[in-house]
User: Fold these one by one.
Assistant:
Number 1:
Amino acid sequence: MNMNDWTYCQIQFQILDDGRGTSDFNGLANRQMWIRFIAQSENKTIRESIKLPIHTSSRIPLTPDKNSLAQKQVLTKLVDTLEYDGWEVVDEGSGEWWQIRLRRDTPYQPPQKAKPKFRDWLIGGIILIPLVIGILLNLSNFIGLNAYSHYSKAGLELTPSTSAPLVEQLVIIDLSNRELDPLQDLIPADLAAEDPQNAETVVWLDCETDSNWRGSTTNCAVTVIDWSEKQILDERLIEGEFTLHPEEGAPQSEVVGNRNNQAILDYLNKLPRK
């Protein structure tokens, strides 16, 4: 097959800062940062992984960590999805461990007519307005308008633990809104923090839903932190089960893209305690 009959894509990574946290003279060490892997073809993003919290400090570069099990899991999930879409791996990490190159047959692309410029402005405005509103809401939420805003990376230097994770009474924080996650009410009483605003162990729960025409699934990145030592004890990616979209006319109470709450609870309950 002629090389012109192939379309290639390359795995890259992105470092994201969505406004969670605050800035000071210490720079990135006080920002809530995230990492995700993306598949790009001809400067276009065709697939992307869920995002994961990433350790930030003046001494740690913002790059993928080959020792992170969670990062390896989401990268493998992204490659599996691309292979399901018809891509095949042709170069697997010959440079950096995450630099994977894939290819597939180039589909026929009929000529497309240029869209009128006023439509571009209209579409851009429709997309931009909710984005700006969302950013403002996130900023207001993480600057201290709720009781759990102090569970952030502001002023912290988080480093992976080198010993077995030992947890104390904990609080589970949903990073989408920096509030208590509903799972807090389901963990055993002796494991739940008596005062959630001053917990000894903090669990960050960051969930993201991946959807297609058939259904969706919600994967959750779980980060366990010894808050008194400002130290990450463990990280884990817990995948949800694929759930079909409800049929038309089904009750609104039907949940699409369930996360695997039981797996999250089992994982937390099995963590060794001090």
Note: The mean pLDDT is 79.
Number 2:
Amino acid sequence: MPHPLRCPQCGQAIMEERVFKWKRVLGPMLKCTILLWPLGYFLTAKPDWYECPKCGRKKVVF
């Protein structure tokens, strides 16, 4: 059975999680405040897309 995050194009590499740069900066800052902690956690809970390190193919997550 193939790995669910294995790249369908090259078939060798496991796809890596990627997030937008603004989420990487804003998420930890929001986690430092008590009132906005749930929003900060929501921004960093899951990746926005997966990217293959070898061929560069992207898989968008909804």
Note: The longest strand covers residues 16-18.
